[in-house]
Every structure is written in structure tokens, then in C-alpha cells.
Specification:
Bound molecules: nicotinamide-adenine-dinucleotide
Radius of gyration: 17 Å
Strand order of the largest sheet: 3-2-1-4-5-6-7
InterPro entries: 2-deoxy-D-gluc_3_DH (IPR011286), NAD(P)-bd_dom_sf (IPR036291), Sc_DH/Rdtase_CS (IPR020904), SDR_fam (IPR002347)
Shape: globular
CATH superfamily: NAD(P)-binding Rossmann-like Domain
Protein name: 2-dehydro-3-deoxy-D-gluconate 5-dehydrogenase
Order of helices and strands: EHEHEHEHEHEHHHE
Helix content: 40-55%
Structural class: alpha/beta
EC number: 1.1.1.127
GO molecular function: 2-dehydro-3-deoxy-D-gluconate 5-dehydrogenase activity; 2-deoxy-D-gluconate 3-dehydrogenase activity; NAD binding
Number of domains: 1
Catalytic activity: 2-dehydro-3-deoxy-D-gluconate + NAD(+) = 3-deoxy-D-glycero-2,5-hexodiulosonate + NADH + H(+)
Length: 252
Amino acid sequence: MLNMFSLEGKVAIVTGCNTGLGQGMALALAKAGAKVVGVNRTNPVETAELIKEAGGEFLNVMADVSSSETPSRVLDETIITFGRVDVLVNNAGIIRRNDAIDFTEKDWDDVMDVNLKSVFFLSQAFAKQVIKQGSSGSIVNIASMLSYQGGIRVPSYTASKSGILGLTRLLANEWAKDGINVNAIAPGYMATNNTEALRNDESRSAEILGRIPAGRWGEPDDVAGPVVFLSSDASRYVNGYTLAVDGGWLAR
Ligand code: NAD
């Protein structure tokens, strides 16, 4: 039974894995047997070390996901080094906070480019390669509670993450017939750089914590099991679904 969850022999790309949830997921995929390709703007020294310690193999492609030449370069370097690709985790993401009334075009475009546009074009390059290989594949997008809720002072983030939920469904509809499963994970409130400003704001932090049934902020390790499940044969008939990993936040 547990063999269904094994990623032995598979190659997984994870964007933005030098820290936070991306690091936790890259390590989890490596521990489940996958060779991991990171896509990062800075050298992910710690992630490389953790994967090595766990007995895994890791390649880093230094790239900005919002650049239009990144998808083809990531796929080329993956194939040159590991010869194939099976899993894509679209994790890289940024957030900008300001009142909607003052929100700038730059803060809109920067967030949409990293959080949504790059996800589409990297997924497209990945799907072309998987179809060429004649194999199956899994895409796991990283959504958010703001794929379901409006949020406050984060207009482009909410738009991008709501877009991820829809794009996950659209790509699943088109590519399920090609053996490519497209799903998403919607993390709740997790203790990473992304939420540092929120956690430093005493009243917002207490408000958030008070509504999480699990009674704690999530940790990168909490997405380990879900990402391995959605990358493995264990989820082969799961298509276009966004799985909340939120300590019960949405159930309130
Ligand atoms: P984080 O800031 O620690 O990680 C973000 C990662 O994306 C980093 O590795 C960063 O270097 C990378 N990145 C950003 N822009 C990039 C670019 N242009 N090119 C390449 N890499 C880039 O925060 P995190 O919480 O680990 O965020 C990971 C994902 O999870 C994001 O998509 C985020 O929106 C999402 N998320 C986080 C939470 C949370 O509570 N922390 C909740 C829901 C969703």
C-alpha cells in the first residue's frame, strides 16, 4: 500500500525552495525518493544540505520565475541533469500589503507575474515535456486561504491566489486525459517569511490564532504529507482539487 506514495525514480521541480514551505516540500519529496530541482533567485544552501543529509539528489537552477525565459531554461537544465521530469510544485510567491485605494500598478504587476503568470507558463513547459516523454505527471500549485476569502490590504495577492484555484481546475480539465494531474494545496496561516508582518502585529496575530481550530500556526512540515500525496500515484484519480491544509481555518 505505502508503495503508492513512493516517488522513487521520479524528478520533481520545486520553485522557491530556499526557505519556508518550498523548503519543507522539497525535503519531503526528496525523502519520498524524488530527485529535486529547485528554482531560486538565491543559492538555496540550506535546502541543498538538508536534501544531501537525507540521502537525496538536488539540482538548483538559478532563475527568477517571473522572467519569460525561465520555463524553457528550467526544463532544459532538468532534462540535461536528470533526463526526465514527473512533478512540478509551483510554490514561489510574493505578497505586497497596502490599502486598495493606494495600491500601485507595480505592486499589482509584480505579484501577478510571480504568483499567477509564471505558474501558467512553467506548467505549460512542464506539460509539453511530460507529453513528449509519454509518461504521467503531477502539478501541485500553492494556493491560499485567499483563494476562498477576500483578505485585507492584499488586492493583488488575493487576485493571484483566487486565480490559482481557477487555473488549477482549467489545467486539470485539459490535461487529465494526458495523464497529468493538476491539483493545489491551500495552506492556512503558516509561520514563514510570508506572514512575518502579520505575526509581528500583536492584535492581528491574536485574532488569527484565535480562529484556528488547531490552536497554532502551521509549519513547513505540515505540507510534507499533502505534497507527497498529490505528487504520487496515491492521488492518480484526484484532478483539479484544492486541498486546504489549514488547521481547520476554513471549517470555522
Ligand atoms: P517565503 O517568503 O518564505 O517563500 C517564498 C519563496 O518564493 C522563497 O523561496 C522566495 O525566494 C521565492 N520567490 C519569490 N519570488 C520569486 C521569484 N521571482 N523567482 C523565484 N523565486 C521566488 O514564504 P512561504 O510562506 O514559504 O511561501 C510559499 C508559498 O506559499 C507562496 O506561494 C505563498 O503565497 C504561499 N502561502 C503561504 C502561506 C503562509 O501562511 N505562509 C499561506 C498560504 C499560501
